[in-house]
Please model this.
Amino acid sequence: MSLVFELRSVTKRFGAQTALDAVSLSGKPGQVIALLGENGAGKTTAIRILLGLLDPDAGEARVLDVDSRRHGSEVRRRVGYVPDRPALYDWMTVGEIGWFAAGFHPLGFEAKYKELVAHFGLPVERQIKALSKGMQAKVSLALAMAHEPALLVLDEPTSGLDPMVRREFLESMVDIAATGRTVLLSSHQIAEVERVADTVLILRHGRLVLNERLEVLKSRVQELLVTLQAVDTAAPSLSHGAVLLGARRMDRQWQLLVRDLSPTGLEALQSLPDVVDVTARQPSLEEIFVACMTTSDTAGWAFPERADVGSPTEVSR
Amino acid sequence: MLMRIDASNGLPIYDQIVRQVKFAVAHGALRAGDLVPSVRELALQVAVNPNTVARAYRDLQSDGVLEPLRGEGLRVTKDARRQCQADRQRLLRDRLRGAIVECRRGGLDTDDIRKLIDDLLKDTQREGVAS
Model:
């Protein structure tokens, strides 16, 4: 399967600040890929390099088999892009801006745009500047989707928007994935990401610390609540191939996030002499994200392949 | 069929879909021969990734709850109800078992647990939660 987009060991510096440090990532047809990270982690920089809006200092960016650095305008014509702050000509009406944008795209753009505008319930005759923030975001989404792009890129599209608008964005993403196209989404709405994404990327201080399918994350990561006989400042030791991803202590209890803990490993932990009780549960993506952002050692977050984990599944249509 | 998905409740989303379809069949909201929504329709309805819905439907097919109907989609099989009722029973049993194991770990003995369960049975009967 060919790649829809790819960053290959991309580095970008702004003065003394390294915004991206040898980041490699890619997306395939039909995937919904979520890019997570704190503000300033490098998410927008990565997106802007993919779209050819910014040149990398090292490395390569390609989208739909086109070099982003050399043919940025072609890349931007072929993908749909919703930036975090949509820059629209606000003196145009909703209808006019569709007509204007149609000039840059093949035939059929305006008809599809009108369809989306009707679907989103936008007033065609109203000027953009007279629209609410949520409606402006929907105009931006309609413009990004009207040429039915093979890749839709959303950079924190729903921050500050009401739940109904966020829901419409979610549905649009689901629809795009259902037709075998690709979505790259940067977001802070982790619960939303958890619903629609199949792959999660986490950037931290310009470095990619996690790149894994959500299904694999959820099946291999466990949260353990370990109660000890006495206060111990060292986290209980794990055995049988389990890897500690994060640990927190409150008095006699340790909260551990672990990867690949087998039933035997759990039993071994339960039978340690100073362990009173162990409770295991499935953490949410938010808990995994927080642990990933706060751990000092990120080595364990590169999940090695495991034989029993299958390849990505296809949508049956 | 109405579905409620909670992405962060610890159960994988495909599993939540499988369970809710089975429960719907078990109590008769979905009957033998009924068509379930297409992958895309259900994905849109509950706003989850279509691959997730597809996976749930594959599981339901291999469990014999759904079967393909040529050109129409997936429908509930003839034997689905009996099977889903058995599945529901097993899921409830597992949950009760988990609660009882927790009681034992909490230091309650068999008589304590039995008394607790008897009390709860009476409580729920009074509240009319029964049946």
Remarks:
- Confidence is low (pLDDT under 50) at residues 308-317 of chain A.
